[in-house]
Amino acid sequence: MFVRLGRFDVARRIWVLAGAALVLVVSCWACAGLPGRLSYGGFMAPAAEASRAADAIRTEAGQGGADVLVTFRNEELTADRPAFREAVEDALRRAPENTVDRATTAWSSANPLLVSLDQHSTVVPILLRGDGETGRTQSYLALRDAVRAPGFEVSWTGPGAIISEIVQRSQHDLVRTELMVLPLMLLLMVFVFRGVVAALLPVVTGVLATAAALAALRAVADVIEVPYVTVNLVVAIGLAAGVDAGLLIVSRFREELRAGRTPAEAVAVTVDTAGRTVALSGVVMTFIAVGLAFFPLGFVRALGIGAAAGLLVGALVTVTVLPALLFCLGERVDALSPAWLRRRGGHRDGVLWGRVARVVMRKPIAYTCAVSALLIALAVPFLHTVIGFPDQRMLPAGAPARVAAERMEHDFAVSGLGTLQAIATFDHPVDRGRGHADLLTWTRNVSELPGARGVLVAGTTGNKAVIYVGQSHRVESDSAKSLVRAVRALPVPGGSGVLVGGASALAVDTMDTFYRLLPRVLAFMVVTSLVLLTVALRSLVLPVKALVMNALSIGASFGALTWIFQDGHAGRLLGAEPTGYVDALAPIVMLFLLIAVSMDYELFLLLRIREQYRLLGDDREAVAVGIQRSGRVISAAAAAVLVVTACFATSSVVMVKEICVGVFLAVLIDAVLVRAVLVPAVMRLLGAANWWWPRFSGNSPTGKGGRPEAAPEHAARLPAPAEPSAERQPR
Question: Phi first, then psi: what are they for 259, rounded to 5°?
């Protein structure tokens, strides 16, 4: 099948290249309409109780909630002075039309908690108007520009202000990172291929994959929420995956040319070997990305759709468009190759990897135990991971919304950001008689719960009341989450129930959703990966080994992430202050990315080892030669991912930084410890069992009597590629 595909790429190369150009034009046209359809939301599941609480406060109570918190501070005047009040109310009257639904001041609500402890500041909770998170954010931006109070320091924070600043920083970071990553990627490819022309080809693949991924986001943006932050991650995935796949194809094509094949033969062999690997890898990773659609968060679903499109199109491009380009170039694929780079290559390519594999296989038990122990030790910090929902700490120190939030925590008796926001429904109106008595009873019961620090009735409407519950612990702590569950479980006397929201409640709901769906998502990813790996490798043992090794490397990267960002070790070197928790969305996204990347490299390596095993029939030599032949390509592919993630890890948004640093560490661990050491050690221990396949299947990598299956026709017809010297490299 793949040989025929390679021949088709050669025979119909004009049509293939024209089709690629058309896809690129259409994708760019679709991408042009994406920014106007991106969302500021997508971080909460609509059916989660915290989301329903926020909606109920807005639509049913109409007061007591807050999208943004604006603080007015005057060092000379105190809040009890008429001039202070007049200045604040005059500033609020400047709000543009249809931006504010309700603004609650200390004077309109007679609430002393809205005044700071030193009496020089007051905070005004504001409910915004607008259609969804995006519409309310637009209202906030217009309001922020209009509200001014001469002589006062005006600062903004709250959920709307924090998300808005995260989005603005993400947009700025995306432009800056794209300008950084493309030149660096091109330089890396020039160093890997020792030529400019060959270096450009994987970058072209990455650009096409990224354009397709963004076009897919545009196609679904009217159906699901696509947050701005998603675009950063989708671009990183598209570039890294496209370059990785292109690198494998170009490397194999050049190898076949140096073995004496014509360009047409080299394309056919390349598509049948490296192309098969890329296609299988693309299918595996696409299915893994589809698993993200199980999660009911717009951010995660959009990431899964964009990643799936980028991975699938990237694989398709590398087995169609790239071979057609390679045939057109032929020997000129090595053009524009500087002499000093050619002298650095040659016969030494891959020798180091082969030597390492042979050294490891002399003492496989020792190396297996040592590396496994190290990976388990790296995973230990993950056992005390604290999961939290994104708040002001996702912004860098000094960000206006973060500074305002931290000042509120210091200046006010109760910070609106850390409180639980509950809306309780009673049988009778709560402003009089029995309903009022029931409200007082319930608030007293809430105040007696462990961890509660003050209860405030923020607003009442009919038989509904909005209650703020202060807490004595950080919003991501186990005590805060226990308080959320306790308030939800507390019966409402003479009432029908309560909905509890707030940052702690959002973290509880997100992780409850994650834990509820994780078994089926993992089952989908694991079963899909096992089936596809089994089909690709014709072995029942190697896919299981691959999953175990992936689990070790993923656990190690999760532990390192906790150690850096939550515990605060080395975080400042990465430009991040310790958060005290790991963002609730990071483990979900990282789980997909790390499984996909690990499976990708596992396929790259094991299919090359299988190819050598079919030729040589010796398991130990097949592992050594397979690693030697593919080691440089895999390390270059890993370097490409490291470059992309390192560039995106410079983001000022801690959530993006966490995910990119986690992937960076996982790829580094996977390339250095797992592929180079653990794989040859374990395969040496397993020996012939690596290729165990039921006899009744009749399709094993070994033939009858354990002899190797006949090598592919192209491998038998021409000699195996030799490691060329620098002088033999085509120019």
Answer: -85, 0
- CATH number for position 149: 3.30.70.1430
pLDDT at 73: 92
Residue 525 and residue 538 share a domain: yes
Looking at residue 122, its pLDDT comes to 92
d(Cα 418, Cα 46) in Å, to the nearest integer? 21
In a domain, 62, yes or no: no
Q: Identify the burial level of 34 via C-beta atoms within 10 angstroms of its C-beta, where 0-12 means exposed, 13-18 middle and 19 or more buried.
A: middle
**pLDDT of 85:** 92
Looking at the structure, tell me whether residues 439 and 514 fall in a common domain: no
Packing angle of the helix pair 619-648, 159-193 (nearest 10 deg)? 130
- Please state, in angstroms and rounded to a whole number, the distance separating the CA atoms of residues 686 and 541: 9
Helices (H), 320-385: 321-329, 339-344, 351-362, 364-379
Query: In the prediction, which pLDDT does 697 show?
Result: 52
* Helices 619-648 & 228-258 angle (0-180, nearest 10): 140
pLDDT at residue 710, rounded to an integer: 45
User: Residue 403 in contact with residue 155, Cβ under 8 Å?
Assistant: yes
Tell me the whole-structure pTM to 2 decimals. Answer: 0.76
Angstrom CA distances, 575 to 189, 381, 409, stand at 28, 21, 23
DSSP structural state of residue 105? -
Domain count, the chain: 3
Alpha carbon distances (Å) from 87 to 105, 127, 144, 413, 539: 12, 20, 16, 23, 76
Give the Cα separation of 167 and 698 in Å (integer): 56
> Based on the domain organization, do 488 and 528 belong to the same domain?
no
The predicted structure's pLDDT at residue 42:
67
Encoded amino acid at 75, one letter: E
d(C-alpha 590, C-alpha 292), whole Å: 11
Asked which of 507, 541, 556 is the last residue of a domain, the reply is: 507
**For strand 582-583 and strand 387-388, is the pairing parallel, antiparallel, or unpaired?**
parallel
Closest to 609 (Cα-Cα) out of 323, 363, 364, 357: 357
Asked whether 350 and 629 are in contact (CB, 8 A), the reply is: yes
Question: Which among 473, 507, 541 is the end of a domain?
Answer: 507
Tell me the DSSP string of 640-678. HHHHHHHHHTT-SSHHHHHHHHHHHHHHHHIIIIIIIII
pLDDT given at position 724: 38
CA 716 to chain centre: 44
What pLDDT shows up at residue 369? 92
Low-confidence spans in the chain with pLDDT less than 70: 40-42, 61-64, 337-350, 415-417, 570-572, 575-576, 695-731
Q: What is the pLDDT of residue 170?
A: 79
Are 9 and 108 in the same domain?
A: no
Range of the domain at 90: 67-157
Q: Which residues pair with 321 in a beta bridge?
A: none
